[in-house]
């Protein structure tokens, strides 16, 4: 008779609210991005990403210990190489920065699931995500060969999951075939299926040194106006062998996450990207917003339908959930 009154009663006490809460963010939902750089003794805050750091491989143990203490068990590695060339050879070097970082983390014998970003932009001297033709056009099919080489080198180093972010057509099938061909059937693939050509990547490009030296990436990243295209891309990736599909960015594309959830019975990841993080972090630090805005924003991603949330807020969220903030 009085549904509004019933809802009011259920809101009156936190213990009651917790019983009927529809959506929850858990620490195991979170993936924390890590940036690894060449050198020794380096732990340097990234200016555009407050409270996130560049780490040299020898400095990873302290950070992994902190993540373990907070209960964060999933990381996504990005490498910043010391040398770049036209084919991004450091990306698939057996002694590359990501490969060494994976081996280091695995040597610590911690319960950490290691994901690695598979792309070429921070490794190429032109900053694009693939092999270029003489006219400056990205050659899709030739790029697949290099992406497969990168994925194999990460798997050999001990990566648990590879995450192709290049948006080349057919890359999931190529990588899956390469991994299976060398006996890495258990290495899974999280595909950046709906990666939009977004204005919210700026801080990341500063952190990874991956801005293109000319032009843009609109020919292979998605138009922010399109959602049907996201479903097409995700379906193709699943058919090619992707284990997890991803939407990137997250907060400006909650509708896309929801459409993915409504259309696919597959795990969905969402990347709460650098620009989204920095805007909100600065608002909280300046006092314009309270820190509850951090949890609310991440909760919205989960509520939209994401199973996995890749976020620079992972440590903040873990501390909130553990009562440390």
Automatic annotation (TrEMBL):
Zn(2+) binds at residues 119, 121, 129. 5-aminolevulinate 2 binds at residues 274, 312. Its cofactor is Zn(2+). Coiled coil: none annotated. The keyword Phosphoprotein does not apply. 5-aminolevulinate 1 binds at residues 205, 217. One of its GO terms (molecular function) is porphobilinogen synthase activity. It catalyses: 2 5-aminolevulinate = porphobilinogen + 2 H2O + H(+). The keyword Nucleotide-binding does not apply. One of its GO terms (biological process) is protoporphyrinogen IX biosynthetic process. Keywords: Heme biosynthesis, Lyase, Magnesium, Metal-binding, Porphyrin biosynthesis, Zinc. PROSITE patterns: D_ALA_DEHYDRATASE (PS00169). NCBIfam families: PRK09283.1 (NF006762). Belongs to the ALAD family. Homooctamer. This is Delta-aminolevulinic acid dehydratase. It comes from Peptoclostridium litorale DSM 5388.
């Amino acid at each position: 008779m009085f549904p509004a009154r019933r809802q009011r009663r259920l809101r009156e006490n936190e213990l009651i609210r917790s019983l009927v809460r529809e959506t929850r963010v858990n620490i195991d939902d979170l993936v924390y991005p890590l940036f690894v750089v060449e050198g020794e003794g380096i732990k340097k805050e990234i200016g555009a990403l407050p409270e996130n750091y560049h780490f040299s491989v020898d400095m990873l143990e302290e950070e992994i210990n902190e993540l373990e203490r907070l209960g964060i068990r999933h990381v996504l590695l990005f490498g910043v190489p010391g040398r770049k060339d036209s084919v991004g050879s450091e990306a698939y070097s057996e002694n590359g920065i990501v490969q060494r970082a994976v081996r280091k983390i695995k040597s610590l014998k911690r319960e950490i699931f290691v994901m690695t970003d598979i792309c070429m932009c921070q490794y190429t001297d032109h900053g694009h995500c693939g092999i270029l033709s003489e006219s400056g056009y990205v050659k899709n099919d030739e790029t697949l060969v290099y992406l497969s080489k990168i994925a194999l080198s990460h798997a050999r180093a001990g990566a648990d999951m590879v995450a192709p972010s290049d948006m080349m057509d057919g890359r999931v099938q190529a990588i899956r075939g390469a991994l299976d061909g060398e006996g890495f059937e258990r290495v899974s693939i999280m595909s950046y299926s709906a990666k939009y050509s977004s204005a919210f990547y700026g801080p990341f490009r500063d952190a990874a040194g991956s801005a293109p030296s000319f032009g843009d990436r609109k020919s292979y990243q998605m138009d922010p106006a399109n959602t049907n295209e996201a479903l097409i891309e995700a379906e193709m990736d699943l058919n090619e062998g992707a284990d997890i599909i991803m939407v990137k960015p997250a907060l400006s594309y909650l509708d896309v996450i929801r459409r993915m959830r409504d259309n696919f019975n597959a795990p969905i990841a969402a990347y709460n990207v650098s620009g989204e993080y920095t805007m909100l972090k600065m608002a909280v630090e300046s006092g314009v917003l309270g820190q509850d805005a951090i949890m609310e924003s991440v909760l919205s991603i989960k509520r939209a339908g994401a199973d996995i949330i890749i976020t620079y807020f992972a440590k903040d969220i873990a501390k909130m959930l553990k009562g440390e903030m």
